[in-house]
Specification:
It is a single chain. By secondary structure, the chain is an alpha+beta fold. The chain folds into two domains: 241 residues, 3-Layer(aba) Sandwich (Rossmann fold), CATH 3.40.50.300; 120 residues, no CATH class. Strands 6-7-8-3-9-10 form a six-stranded mixed sheet, with helices on both faces. A hairpin with a 4-residue loop joins strand 16 and strand 17. The radius of gyration is 25 Å and the shape is globular. The relative contact order is 0.12.
Length: 381
């Protein structure tokens, strides 16, 4: 393993009940990083998490996990690196991994104090007390030691689950849909707070979510999964800027899809002609422009759509819906005489709503603020 790597997953496949759930999965995680696994339901996110934790065994490939909390190679001996293969299993309790489940999985008959200390009950009482007190302060649970789970709010139960997972001082923390049961009003606040705590502790973490907003808020890097494979890994901003496949762009809802034809160096579409340049295409999962007519799909990011106040543009559309998001006004547009749907964002609350329902407006497309993929039939599937 590379010096700063905590986890390495190579060619991992997992078969459960004779069904392939993960296929040829590759993944690395560095010390101190927070990685978010995202993708549609059934794509293999939780299976990957459970395999890292030790609840599933790999069918092919291997996992390498460092159990030492330091990334300094001189502090890591051979025994501190676990290698898991189809022929070599390591039970979960020997992997030095903490896990937080979607339903928290707190013991209802135990107090907050005993829940937190459950995984460290073999340590001296003084050490248990020291760790529990430290975590109670860190997670703002001081004064709740004697309460039972049913006496706590959802956010407090989540904090107890995190404290219990952190008490054994794991090298890696795994979180399965950790914020899904939290009230929407408190979710973002808790995410930011938990991220700050993990960074303060220099804790590495992998968390599963189907919510793209959660992963953008919480993660240093994201891995987008589809049908048992990881399609792309990178910083959220990089993945959003340059998705490497239509599946990634479609799941993250990065813009509107427009059918186009490539003819003589131009993309012809329902919103007019757009110039074609080589830098619009990635090497994999995208077309190679050869100058002839081709049926393609253009990913038009919402920030690429510009409202034309002068009204002289030919690209007239109608405002079908107006909604308010945390960023500003969101408009759903459709072409007046063509079967086309577009999204447009007004990223400000400090000015009046630009349009009215049913209003006809003119738009133009910012040059080169789009990407082109091969045509497909199941883009909405």
């Amino acid at each position: 393993m590379v010096e700063n790597e905590l986890l390495s997953v190579k060619q991992l496949s997992v078969k459960l009940q004779n069904k392939v759930i993960l296929l040829d999965t590759h993944l690395t995680l560095n010390f101190g990083d927070i990685l978010g696994l995202v993708g549609p339901s059934g794509c293999g996110k939780t299976t990957l998490l459970n395999t890292i934790a030790g609840f599933n065994s790999p069918s092919t490939g291997e996992l390498n996990i460092k159990r030492n909390n330091s990334s300094s190679t001189h502090l890591i001996v051979e025994e501190d690196v676990l290698t898991i293969t189809p022929f070599k299993h390591v039970v979960p309790e020997h992997r030095n991994i903490g896990m937080i489940f979607q339903d928290y999985a707190l013991f209802p008959h135990l107090s907050v104090e005993k829940n937190i200390c459950f995984g460290i009950n073999k340590l001296p009482k003084s050490e248990q007390k020291f760790r529990m007190t430290d975590l109670l302060n860190l997670l703002k649970l001081t004064g709740l030691e004697a309460r039972f789970p049913h006496q706590l709010s959802g956010g407090q139960q989540q904090r107890v689950a995190i404290a219990r997972a952190l008490a054994p001082q794991p090298t890696l923390l795994l979180l399965d849909e950790p914020f899904s049961n939290i009230d929407a009003r408190l979710r973002n606040e808790l995410m930011l707070e938990m991220r700050q705590i993990l960074k303060q502790l220099k804790m590495s973490a992998i968390f599963v979510t189907h919510n793209k907003d959660e992963v953008f808020t919480f993660a240093d890097k994201i891995a987008v999964m589809h049908q048992g494979s990881i399609l792309q890994i990178g910083r959220p901003a990089d993945v959003c800027h340059s998705p490497n496949s239509w599946q990634v762009a479609d799941f993250l809802q990065l813009g509107s899809w427009i059918p186009v034809k490539a003819i003589n160096g131009q993309f012809q579409s329902a919103v007019g002609e757009l110039p074609s340049t080589e830098d619009l295409f990635l090497k994999e999962n995208m077309i190679t422009y050869k100058g002839g007519p081709q049926k393609l799909q253009l990913l038009l990011k919402s920030q690429a759509i510009v409202y034309c106040e002068d009204g002289f543009e030919k690209n007239n559309v109608k405002v079908d819906n107006i909604s308010i998001t945390e960023h500003g006004f969101h408009y759903l547009l459709s072409s007046i005489d063509k079967d086309l749907s577009l999204s447009f964002e007004q990223l400000s609350f400090y000015s009046n709503c630009l349009f009215a329902l049913g209003q006809k407006i003119a738009i133009k497309i910012k040059s080169h603020n789009y990407q082109v993929f091969n045509s497909y039939d199941d883009i909405l599937g």
